[in-house]
Amino acid sequence: MHTREAAERIEAYAEVGAFISRTAEDSAGPVVAVKDVVDVAGQVTTAGSVVLPAVPAGRDAPVVARIRRAGCAVIGKTNLHELALGPTSENPHFGVVRNPHDRNRVAGGSSGGSAAAVALGMCDWAVGSDTSGSIRIPAALCGVVGVKPTTGTVDVTGTVPVSHTQDTLGPLAPDVATAVRALELMTGVRLAPPARRARNLRLVVPDGWGADLDPPTAEVWVAVTDGLPRIRLPDRDRLVATGSTIVMAEAAARHGRWVSEAPDRLGADVRELLREACTVPRARYVRALFEAGVLRTELAAALSGWDALLVPATRIVAPLVGAPVARGELTDYTRPFSVTGHPVVTLPAPSTGLPVGIQLVGHHGGDEELLGVAAALERAWR
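Given the sequence above, the corresponding structure tokens read:
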């Protein structure tokens, strides 16, 4: 894709609200959109908020510098949920990111602009960040591929942080092959996912998960997991609570000061979240850090002998803009694998209605093998 073609598509779909700022780059690509938590030289990094200094970044973040050296052009900075602290991308400062499949619905968050840009062909692929599901949720709701690599795989230097122990960067792409190439460019590591056939994969689903899905999501979930064996995982409530405690405590350490210094410049939902985050006791945070290590070991043991675990990405399809949505409806299936740091690929599953995404969870550090599994399932589901 040429940057001129990308710019034309961005203009054509301006009502979706996918971008916060644009660059003036002119190149034959690959054209990449970057979530506005990552520094791009000459662009202000807003993190979707107005509380951060409006000073253009003096240099590219390492991940951006790396993809530029590989010949990529950065078309602009994508919109997101404020401070990357929410799952809908309804942004009070830069506008709602609307779902490409239904403009009355949200794109998901927090990397909503990146997912929408990919879904509408505004770029070849996009950079997103993920702390509790921020790549996987919008990928699921917008019908694109999202990759949360094993935590630590991609350098997060030059990124506005949420949780220094759980923040990750990864690609959103129209298909698995593009996602593989994008991850190669983001890391500088050559990947060679093994060629697999869907019928030979050892896939498994978590026992007791999937009973709380809305009807459209449940229909897809039942169809794609029919006949698959079930295994016992660590308790999901325990996984969610541990991850939430860590993220809240670390987000408060980074952004909690805005509650007292500039409360009127925060969106209402983020302001209330940060107020709550500031009350997390240190002792609970320390216990959660220990528990995260235990959970990582338990999940690794549960996945032994299997190629991948299939898990719903969200409980619901994309909600309507402005509709009250409990955060857990969108995050309770993604947060568990943030706390353990395992790699996850979200794939669009066959659906006759709004997009439904399914997470494929792989072995810790087994990103390459997981991408091979994802490619095989992508072929089978098309």
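The chain has a mean pLDDT of 97. Try to locate this feature in the token string yourself.
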